[in-house]
Amino acid sequence: MGDELVSNGNVSESSGNNDQSNPSVIDIFTLSNYYFGSKEAIPFKEETLADRVQRLKSNYAAHGLRTCVEAVILVELFKHPHLLLLQVRNSIFKLPGGRLRPGESDIDGLRRKLSRKLSVNGSGDEIEWEVGECLGMWWRPNFETSVYPYLPPNVKCPKECTKLFLVRLPDSRKFIVPKNLKLLAVPLCQIHENHKTYGPIISGVPQLLSKFSFNIIES
What we know:
Layout: E1 3-4, E2 10-15, E3 25-29, E4 35-39, H1 49-63, E5 66-72, E6 74-77, E7 80-88, E8 92-94, E9 97-99, H2 106-118, E10 130-140, E11 160-168, E12 174-178, E13 181-187, H3 188-191, H4 195-203, H5 205-208, E14 213-218
Parallel strand pairs: 2-14, 3-14, 4-12, 5-11
Antiparallel strand pairs: 1-13, 5-9, 6-7, 7-8, 7-13, 10-11
């Protein structure tokens, strides 16, 4: 299911400095370059599907379209690109990220969410998250329906939009994860079109990355 932490496209290997000058190339560093620790748990709402639908309706009535931002973060393990996923209650897989606050920009909101879920709280010496391009957008036309990777032309008032952003990692970083979450590194080949396990958004990530080449940086 993936490797817990306490190929698609062209893959090459190199050593030396990280060169992100070519935006079509993603430099990927080995998993062992990173430090993984834990921090206090963050609260999760226990709710039924009906509760969630009611919450979405209330949020829409108060603020309009709900926008979520999520991060696509890659590491290398066993010479293959792996995607970092958060696992909730040993069953639900999520990309790191979450809902924007009213008036908050996509990049600022994603950095805030990444710091809350993957960094030391209140640390002043954190490396800023390098949020890159938007890889794709998923739309929820109605409160009860599934999400789609396009906005149907007959839908004038979508209820939710989820944006996926590429987040490039430096050659080292600390990941500090709440105790009630697991951070997993899952190979892209396992995620590809695996809708049953990962859902439509995560299982579509390998296709979104098909325009990039992967450059594995050896330590």
